[in-house]
Amino acid sequence: MEKKKPYTSPKIFRVELNHDQAILGTCSTSSTSNSTGGNRACQPGNCRRRGNAAGKDDGAPPS
Amino acid sequence: MSDPRISQIEYRDFSAKLHRHSFERERVIKAQLEITYRCNLHCRHCYTDCYNCPGKIKNELTLGEIKRILDEMAGEGILWLNLTGGEILMRKDFFDIYDYAYDLGFILTLFTNGTLLTDKIIARLKKRPPFFIDVSCHSVREDAFDWFTKTRGSFQRFSKGIQLLKESGLPFYLKTKAMNWNLSELSDIRHFFESFGLVFDYTTTLYPTLNGDLAPLQFRLSPEVISNLEAFDLDTSCTGRKASTGKPATDQLYRCLCATNMIHINAFGELGTCTQEYEVRASLKEYSLKTAIEHVFPAVRSLKYESDSPCRDCNLYLFCQKKPTSARLETGDAKSPVPYYCDLAYNLAKKVTDSEIEHPLQGGGTHNGKEKTLHLSQNIPGGIEP
Question: Of B127, B191, B300, B349, which sees the most CB atoms within 10 A?
């Protein structure tokens, strides 16, 4: 049986929206995306490309 | 003045953390909303222009319906919202939509062709700026740009639009698609981007139109050209791991991020998991956003390769850019391989792996051979060869 995680109280952070960082913070899916591991895959190099990044943070799916 | 008790984190860290959580918990945090198919241009590669006509436009979402959907998005915890079209500024009520979304607190991005930007619109955006604006740039040659958009004067208006954006200080990017007709001017496009202090980048994927016309595909670059063009290093993915060949872990039709953390809503109010996903949709004119997501996401995830399609066990799937809906339009079957993408995956894989690579359609693999024939009948202005 999976051990229950200890409770941690919510924390509030201040975030300044910095569009220059929008391309960079996109690789969150990497932990499940290699060819032998998880069910889902991202294509090599895609995350670095504007307009082609599956995880990019502009709301738009990959084009 | 900010409260000193509240610590600040970088946007990149915030975004990465939220994306990771949303993916692990399959929670939707991003949406793309096509607010209209109307457009003042008629770009030759456009997949939506087929619906840029009065008979289709009358079925588009009303302002009231869009506001209701935006309310529901906010209620579901969606944070990033992209407004796109068609051309977003063709809607007379664009700012009613924009302001409503802004007030709900979305991180807003706008996709536009830039040709309808005016001082008045810029001034209004400056008061309540979006996260950023993406403007499409097809060419830096006036004759070629106007030929491609089928609209005389479009390059002049585009140039004026991005000049206004530059002067305004609003955050914007230019984007382009590398195609067979503009390939020879790619370095000029790069210089044009850089003259605005912007990073040059491009995509190469083209899609059939929403009503199934394959005409946009005639502008595709060949797989050989693309594999030699690709600017990024293919030998490492975002994970830092070396990209490799190998069989997929599942039979799922969608092996990408579809049906995890983002939604797409078209101008008719049909919800899917991606701009190019039209295998399963639910109408938001009939269902709530929550119900639509609950219906569509499991249905998309449940789609599987059940036949002996070579895609099912393809060793090159990590290099493949096939989209099932495009495959259905191109070959008649979403599960069928698209030889173009097989060739491209083969070329990309060859570029980054040392081992012997077998082409996906060799070694007994077959496809259904139903590819439709493209009609190459365009008159391209002098000096540009498809």
Answer: B349
